[in-house]
Amino acid sequence: MRLKLPERRRFIRIEVPLRINVRGNGWSEEATTKNISPIGMRFEISREFEKSVLLDMSMFLPVPESSPISVKARVIWQSKTSLEDNAPYDVGVEIVEIEESSKNVLLKYLCDLLYDSSYHSG
């Protein structure tokens, strides 16, 4: 008999590839989300981060007349995608700062994805 562990996540993750720009001290890198929720996201990137480091990020939602959404996010976890030396990293971040109007745009976009009959999580 297998024990079912309680779900620790507070929000469902939606698997959607969104273009993001991740910025730090003197560097900037484009990436694509693997999944996103109202409070965080997972993406793949070439650089390694310290846990809890703060990143400035811009998300580009594929909705008409939408400007990039700026967020400040904290690195929660990171792991290499493979054992190869130059393999990218999977990174999970928590959104710690977002403007209220941008939050509303993001939440509406995520709700639209959930209610869109063409969306299927894989």
How would you concisely characterize the structure shown here?
This protein is mainly beta and 122 residues long. It has 1 helix and 6 strands; from the N terminus they run ββββββα. The two termini are 26 Å apart.
Model description:
The longest helix is centred in the last third of the chain and has 16 residues, at 100-115. It contains one helix and six strands; from the N terminus they run ββββββα. The chain is mainly β and 122 residues long. The radius of gyration is 15 Å and the shape is globular. The two termini are 26 Å apart. A six-stranded antiparallel barrel has the order 1-2-3-6-5-4. It has one helix at 100-115; strands spanning 19-24, 27-37, 40-45, 54-60, 69-80, 89-98. A hairpin with a 2-residue loop joins strand 1 and strand 2 (27-37). It has one domain: predicted glycosyltransferase like domains (Thrombin, subunit H). It is 13% helix and 43% strand.
